[in-house]
Write a structure and sequence with these properties.
The protein is built from 14 helices and 15 strands. The chain is an alpha/beta fold.
Length: 440
């Protein structure tokens, strides 16, 4: 058996041990793992996540369309299948949409008017995630017009007779702000029809995301978006102090940190009204969110520059999360499109390894690099939805192995840290050579 296969078998064996809640024996003795039935709210402790006061490093994924698929009996089974696949490789957090505004299978048909069947579909998604011990980041709106988002709110405002001149009025007009707040209130206070648990009390939900990729290009100073983030973060926390809250930002540096703009992928990134450090210093924001799309931001044609950018982009944000923010940072979207010129699966594997290794370098020092969520995981038979970034595990064995190995490393690290009662442990155990082996 070659080294790669040996490593994979070891990875899967260790992960099986972890999820079965048995003891692992090392030269230091026997360590009992945490009861697998425990299901408590994720929290933040300094610059790391904790569950039951033990570290929780994230290996996760995105699948935005789960609610829409759950709304149709003919496709609902794909939601369960997806969570089964994710669980089988140890993924622990899924990011998905808790919005669909005024469009096909809309959750919110018009301001504060909801389709109960679609809401029950979201209930199903949350309940199925719980069954497979996968936590959810639920995004509450979209900057883009997919699934309605900011443009749909502005359309509703115009239909109500408001004088609106830009989609960015979403951030500033009091009526549109009230529409958004009403949606937040409705979702947070929703009682799940499958579990009878109110969303704001459900530990299945890892965090609330204010908006997917907010941008406010009409105000490059960033003041308009900053004001919106300040208001909405406090509003969410006023109703739900238990859950974590994040912005949904892409991570672009803005006017508050001119020395850091060198890490932006292009000059345009400084002109879209976002400001990574300033945005995340807002009261009520618990962790930083960053996206990584070298193939969209630098050039569509695949080059090694994409990998170098990814590494420096991540390291800059991890450093800033530690130095200026004192909070964890999650890289909540990353990936590469199979439609890009020069793409091959080997490059995708190298990109995944780059992201995962950069995170491990932070993890083993007790740093702010708290995890990542790739874009995006699909079950079989959903290829027609693929935007080029979809990963179907049974069809992608090499990428699946890399994902599984990262899950195992993080699961072991979380458990090791619970043994030693602190992070950044310097003491070596037999597992650590596997955990931090440079040959990823």
């Amino acid at each position: 058996m070659d080294t790669h296969k040996t490593k994979l078998v070891f990875s899967l064996t260790l992960f099986t041990i972890l999820i079965r809640n048995v003891a692992i024996t090392t030269s230091d003795g026997i360590y009992e793992l945490e009861d697998d039935d425990a299901w408590q709210m994720a929290q933040r402790k300094g610059n790391q996540f904790v569950v039951n006061d033990k570290p929780f490093y994230v290996n996760g994924f995105n699948t935005y369309w789960l609610m829409v698929f759950a709304a149709d009996e003919s496709t609902r089974g794909k939601v369960t299948e997806l969570f089964q696949h994710a669980s089988s490789v140890g993924l622990t957090v899924c990011r998905t949409w808790a919005f669909n505004d005024g469009q096909w299978r809309a959750l919110q048909k018009s301001p504060s008017v909801y389709d109960e069947q679609v809401f029950k579909a979201l209930d199903f998604v949350v309940s199925e995630a719980n069954k497979y011990k996968i936590r959810l980041i639920l995004s509450l709106s979209n900057n883009w017009d997919a699934y309605g988002g900011k443009p749909q709110y502005v359309k509703w405002g115009k239909e109500a007779g408001l004088n609106l001149t830009s989609d960015d009025d979403f951030f500033s007009h009091p009526t549109l702000r009230s529409y958004y707040k009403a949606h937040v209130k409705t979702v947070l206070n929703r009682v799940n029809t499958f579990t009878n648990i109110t969303y704001k009390d459900d530990p299945t939900i890892f965090a609330w995301e204010l908006m997917n990729e907010p941008r406010c290009t009409s105000d490059p100073s960033g003041d308009k978006l900053q004001s919106w983030i300040q208001e909405m973060a406090v509003y969410v926390k006023s109703m739900d102090a238990k859950h974590l809250v994040e912005i949904g930002s892409e991570g672009f540096y803005g006017p508050s940190a001119p020395a850091r703009t060198q890490f932006n992928p292009n000059t345009y990134a400084t002109q879209i009204g976002t400001d990574f450090i300033r945005n995340h210093q807002v009261l009520g924001i618990d962790f930083a969110s960053v996206h990584i799309y070298a193939d969209s931001w630098l050039s569509q044609t695949i080059t090694d520059d994409h990998l170098q950018f990814t590494k420096s982009w991540m390291e800059a944000h991890i450093e800033d999360a530690e130095k200026y923010l004192g909070m964890p940072v999650l890289f909540t979207e990353f990936g590469v499109s199979a439609k890009d010129p020069g793409y091959n699966s080997s490059f995708r594997d190298t990109l995944f390894n780059t992201v995962y290794k950069t995170l491990l370098n932070s993890t083993k020092k007790g740093g702010s690099g708290a995890g990542s969520l790739f874009w995006q995981l699909f079950p079989e038979g959903t290829d027609y939805m693929d935007d080029g970034y979809a990963i179907i595990l049974p069809k992608s064995p090499s990428t699946t192995n890399i994902i599984s190995l990262q899950s195992t490393r993080l699961a072991i690290f979380n458990t090791m840290c619970s043994w030693h009662c602190h992070w950044g442990c310097r003491k070596r155990t037999p597992l650590e050579s596997f955990l931090y082996h440079d040959d990823l």
